[in-house]
Amino acid sequence: MKGALVGALVIAALALQTSPFFGRNGAGIDLVLVVVVWAALQFGPASGLLTGAAAGLAQDVLSAGTIGVGGVAKTLVGFGAGVVGSQFIVANAMTRFVVLAVGAALNELVFLGLYAVIERRGFDMPWRQAGARALATAVVGIALMVASNAIPAFLMRRRLRRGY
Amino acid sequence: MLEIHRRTGYLLLATLVAQVILISAQVRTSAGTRVLQAVTFGVFSQVQLGTAWVFGGGRSVWDGYFGLRGAHVENLQLRQSLAQVQVKLLEQHAQALRAAQLEKILDLRERTPLRTVAATVIAGDATGIFRTLTIDKGSSSGLRKDMAVIAPSGVVGRIVEPPPLYAAKVQLLIDREAAAGAIVERSGVGGVVVGSDRDSELPLDLQFVSNLSDAKVGDRLVTSGLDSIFPRGITIGTLSLVEKGVGLYKRIGVTPAVDFAEVGAVLVVLDPPQLTGPSPAGGAFATRPPAPTRPTAPAAGAATTPAAPTAPLQPGGRPSGAAGPAAPRPAPARPTPAPATPPASPTPPAQTPPAQTKPAQPPPAQTPPAQTPRPPTAQPATASPAPPGRPR
Q1: Rounded-to-integer distance, Cα B362 and Cα B369, Å
Q2: Which residues contact B203 (CB under 8 A, 6 or more apart)?
Q3: Which of A56, B221, B234, B368 has minimal CB crowding within 10 Å?
Q4: Distance of alpha carbon B20 from its chain centroid, rounded?
């Protein structure tokens, strides 16, 4: 059940991210990463790294890059987020935002770093764009997480009101 | 799932490794090969290297131990072959030395007017006590007892004991029982050269030379011919030690001209010494006859060594009184007028017969055919019998 949910979320994230709605470049937001961090915070580091590996590989397969680079990056992010979620209380939005921001930055760093190594072109990377993308991902991600927590609560309150 | 949670680290590692492998399968190196291939080849080459090392070590162990069963036999064969080659090499070396010695002998034989027989040394002394050699010529070649044996560089010794047919024993001059009449070539001072008993010092001593006589270090010592064995003028050696003695005589050490350790071929002089004839020519002989040219020749030496006539001479031996001497008593030990005779002085007819220069056929009454009649002055010495108990 848990795996299916996470899989469905990853597929949905990939679908949204690659849809024309977000433009050809996905509007610079990594929705798959948001799903990975959420799964890691919800289910722990093992689920986070598996989700990250699967989602990253899926991204790599769908893109024109080297298969495995995104997988490694998201594996590390999922594992790290899972460890943080299991060691610290990350229930409030601000903490989750930090985790999302750091995770997005780590993802960009590993992703671009691996490509720098593979292509042997040094670390002359678009760090500013990467930072902006990470920040945007964190903002959208925290919004989605807050919404994901608010929606069940809203539905509960509505059900209770109808009962009275 | 719970186990996976417990092994999250391993899971992370496996996931990362798997993806790294995946990446490596796609990325190419600068050489154009895929990283996975390069890494796989590199890693597997190390495995191959280790495998080769293991198998190489095993083969080395096999070749070094188990495979050496045949090497022992081969080693023995090689050692045998090496020994044979070494023996052949030694034989070749010995033949080369022998050829060189024979060349010298031949040269000496051509230069000396003496009638000689060339012989080869075939053995050394059996006991190690006496200095003797065995040569390959005997009585069948005309050799007789007391014949002089010389080498290109000087006196070697004399034949002791009546030789058998095909061998003869030669007493070296350095034997402690040997002696020979000698004179200093430069001054004509006479004496008796004897073998030294002291192996570590000079092997020859010149005895009965007065403290007043003229003898210096570096003087050449030649035979005087007065012992009736060695022809006159053959080099004996060089004076290496001249000291004033305790008594009447000098203490003189002589370095022999012959390297007795290297003697391989010799000449046996068939002719007895001529006391008044011309001196033999050749490298081993003195360049000038001492007696005719030096008035102080043996007679003068004898005159300056008054104790010589009274020396305690054994019959036919050394005057030391030790066990029987080998060489006859030399002239300086006896007042014989012949060596001191000036060139103008008359010579006894018996000493200068034509047969002495070519003594092929001595008178029937004489002793061995190869020997000429000995001078009267030397006759008592050569005729002296060996004392009883003499080693040879």
Answers
A1: 6
A2: B174, B195, B196, B254, B255, B256, B260
A3: B368
A4: 87
Residue B95's SS3 state is helix
Number of neighbours of residue B380 by Cβ within 10 angstroms: 16
Residues of B with CB under 8 A from a CB of A: 1, 4-5, 8, 11-12, 15-16, 19-23, 26-27, 30
Chosen for mutation from A67, A74, A83, A110 (greatest number of chain B CBs closer than 10 Å) is: A67
Q: What is the pLDDT of residue A113?
A: 87
What's the maximum distance between 2 C-alpha atoms anywhere in chain B?
A: 144
Residue type at position A97:
F
Is the Cβ pair A120, B30 closer than 8 Å?
yes
ipTM score of complex: 0.73
Tokens at A20, concatenated: 């024309």
| Two tokens, residue B196 | 């030294």
Q: Tell me, what's the pLDDT at B200? A: 54
Please report the pLDDT score of residue A1 as a whole number: 77
Distance CA A81, CA A39 (A): 9
Distance CA B272, CA B232 (A): 10
pLDDT lower than 50: segments of chain A: 24
pLDDT of res. B209: 93
Q: How far is CA A163 from CA A151, A153, A155, A157, A159, in A?
A: 18, 15, 12, 10, 6
pLDDT given at position A91? 80
CB contact under 8 A, B11 and A49: yes
State which amino acid sits at residue B11. Answer: L
- Which residues of chain B register pLDDT less than 50? 1-3, 276-392
